[in-house]
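Structure first, sequence second, as always.
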């Protein structure tokens, strides 16, 4: 077989590999956050997740998009930035909701605990010093 005979196979294969690599670039940055999102949502605990990482990634991806307007680069990298911004916003939304609900639960518990302590320890009514002297 000649090199021209294999061209019908190599061109679509090259295109397929190129699309696969572009897809891996676009969605590769999001994949590690899927298990974290599911774990935070399932346990309702966001203590191990740093929102500062989200902040840094948001700033970096926004700067990359702004750079794209001045000097164009490959579109998969632009799409990667857009998808990462959406992902970071979703992670921040989830972490904020979980942390707010946890703080509200802690405040409710401490308030309820204070109420139950007040009921358990009921001091007898205080008598005035003068009232005791007059008796």
């Amino acid at each position: 077989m000649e090199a021209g005979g294999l061209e019908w196979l190599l061109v679509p294969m090259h295109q397929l590999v190129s699309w696969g690599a572009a897809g891996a670039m676009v969605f590769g940055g999001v994949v590690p956050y899927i298990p974290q999102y599911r774990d935070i949502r399932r346990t309702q605990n966001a203590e191990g997740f740093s929102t500062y990482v989200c902040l840094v990634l948001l700033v970096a991806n926004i700067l990359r998009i702004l750079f794209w307007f001045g000097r164009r680069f490959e579109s998969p990298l632009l799409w990667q930035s857009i998808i990462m911004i959406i992902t970071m916003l979703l992670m921040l939304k989830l972490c904020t909701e979980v942390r707010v609900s946890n703080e509200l639960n802690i405040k409710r518990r401490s308030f309820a605990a204070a109420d139950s302590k007040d009921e358990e320890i009921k001091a007898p009514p205080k008598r005035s010093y003068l009232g005791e002297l007059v008796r």
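Margin note: Helices lie at 7-28, 33-43, 51-70, 75-120, 129-134.
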